[in-house]
Design goal:
145 residues; alpha/beta; 2 domains; 4-stranded parallel sheet; two-stranded antiparallel ribbon; F-box-like_dom_sf
Length: 145
């Protein structure tokens, strides 16, 4: 039996590719984008991003996040949903920059989870970027754990 190398996924319309990619974490969706030009185009215009947990000490992750969001802003991609879990409240310095880009992309739903840490009898808290409160669209679901 001869194998069929027909790429059926790349023949799907972009909205369907967006729907499929929206179920994946951003890292997995980006990996999928290397399979074809069509998937790369779908990834670069994907309005749903779930980055999962971001470890604040990994600088390359922050560069990837910066590039991904800057690309969305440059191409006027209207962001529908963005999810991020910051494992340490010090990440909010990066997050401020990212949130400003998301607001510029008219973000509809922002899911932000920030862990607090207990240190010498005190909980350590950061503060949300002021840009969130000035956003025209309603950003939703903040979790401080």
């Amino acid at each position: 039996m001869k194998g069929n190398s027909d790429d059926r996924i790349s023949k799907l319309p972009e909205p369907i590719l967006h729907h499929i990619l929206s179920f994946l974490r951003a890292k997995s969706a980006a990996r999928m984008s290397t399979l074809s030009k069509v998937l790369d185009s779908a990834w670069n215009s994907l309005p749903y991003l779930d980055f999962g947990e971001i470890l604040w000490w990994l600088k390359d992750v922050n560069v990837v996040m910066d590039q991904t969001l800057a690309s969305r802003k440059k191409h006027n991609i209207s962001m529908q949903r963005f999810s991020l879990w910051l494992s340490y409240y010090a990440c909010l310095s990066y997050d401020d920059r990212w949130i400003k880009i998301l607001i510029a992309c008219n973000i509809k739903e922002l899911n932000l989870r920030v862990e607090t840490h207990y240190y010498r009898g005190n909980f350590l808290y950061g503060s949300l970027p002021v840009a969130i409160f000035a956003a025209k669209s309603k950003c939703a679901e903040f979790a401080w754990i």
